[in-house]
Amino acid sequence: MHEAPRLNCRVWLTTLPSKEFPVSLLQKAVKVACDKPKGIAQSMMHSFKEIEGLFDEPGLQLEARKKLLFGLCLLHSVITERARFGTLAWNLPYNFSQADLLVAARQIVELLKDSEEVSWAAVDHLVVEANYGAQINDAMDSRVLRAMVADFVSSEILADNYKFCGLKEYELPKGMKTKEDYAMLIRDFPKNDNPELFGLNEAEAIQYSLDDAIETRSMLSQLISGSSKTAHQLQENLPTKVKDMIKELPGDLSKSECMKKYPIQHAECLNSILQQEVCRYESLLNVVRSSLLSLHSALKGEVVLSKDLDEIAQSISHNIVPSLWYTHAYPSLKPLSSWMKDLEERMGFLEYWVKEGHPSKFKLSVFFNPESFLAALKQNYARKNGMNFSDVFFEYEVGAEKKSKGKLIEGLYMEGARWDRREHCLAELTSDTIPEEMPAILFTPTTTKAKPAVLLLSRHRATSVRCTSFQRAVGASLHCAASYARLAFCFPRAQARSTGCSVE
């Protein structure tokens, strides 16, 4: 006998993301999602619950095992939470998961089960090389990870009242016996994370908070603009805004003049770079202009408003660069208004180069492909001196004057440190420091690889300091690799002369 359906029943359904899931059911259901824990305290408790069963397994070195598992758990939380600082944390994005923590913890337990002494070399290899380090593809990220492991999973952790990163609020007190003691310690962690635990300082934490606030404000503004009244106002102002954008577009670059004045030559690789950039900007400008003209006609009712034009209209209304333009443009995080001004400045630089000749300073941000520009400088030097391209390196001098062999490069911004213009060296950030443009840097091709200067930082510093806009372009040359104790920067040795600097 079949019962009649009960209209007041509820069904709890757990499912993976699927394109075949009925949309109608999804619209009627109450959706519950599990967000990742935010902050060291929440992340630590979540990770601790994954491995707390390993605390009670029999074996030798019980006290050392518990402290090591606790340190490993804190290391995992710091590594995952550190990613929220973006490129200041890791050069490349990594997806560390709870499985990495569980595997590393089980391996450490097995290692200590029948051993009377802790093999720290084996522990270091398991964590740095076999588990977390196996996912890291960047040499500088590997250096940062190794420095972090030395602070969270090392022989020092067995000492009484050990302070992680030297911070009082993250102290491992004496007399910790059971897993309940460690759970209580985690609950006492501060709600607001100390940036020094991540190897960062207060200035970088402030910058993260500002970026987070800007992102939240952008989301809220889009939600507000979605209201009927605000959307109607945006639609009324859109035709005027599009018309003004068309008027403000820069003029076309003279491709024929560029090819005539700067023909492709074996001895001058910069000519081909200039021709490539002119072609790329001409293609981008054609896309922007044609889409704006089509949108203007559609808003007047002369043509049909297609899906692509509607997306462009919505992006312009929200001051966002349309995705159609991005596919033909250079990488940029600027809002639309700033992006248009930046486009005008970039094309002005190329126009000056075409009409007036080689500029005294090259702005690296102008190039679609900065790597090719730097490679062209090396190639010119190699061909002129009859040597292999792989044997040519760069020497750098910040704030130098123009010399015959090198090129002055500008347009680089530094994060994670600042350039002390008085002492002419890298220095720690201060709380009121914002990412600032570096002085012009003289790139001089040479056959001698520059030996890095080293700036000694505070004890607990683990950050990647870089010229943010073009790390890929400059690569290891301008990339600063920071460990907890020192930071290497490929500048000449003479520029490491301030107090606290040394050369290795």
Structural description of this entry:
It is a single chain. With 504 residues, this protein is of the alpha+beta class. Helices cover 45% and strands 10% of the residues. It has 16 helices and 15 strands. The protein has a 7-stranded antiparallel sheet. A 4-stranded mixed sheet has the order 3-5-10-4. A hairpin with a 3-residue loop joins strand 13 and strand 14. Helix 4 packs antiparallel against helix 5. The N and C termini lie far apart (86 Å).
Describe the SSE topology.
Blueprint (H helix, E strand, L loop, with lengths): L22 H6 L11 H12 L10 H21 L15 H16 L6 H12 L7 H14 L9 E2 L7 E2 L6 H9 L14 H24 L2 H21 L6 H7 L8 H30 L7 H11 L5 H4 L9 H21 L4 E3 L6 H16 L7 E6 L8 E4 L2 E3 L2 E3 L4 E3 L8 E2 L3 E6 L6 E4 L7 E4 L3 H4 L5 E3 L3 E4 L11 E3 L1
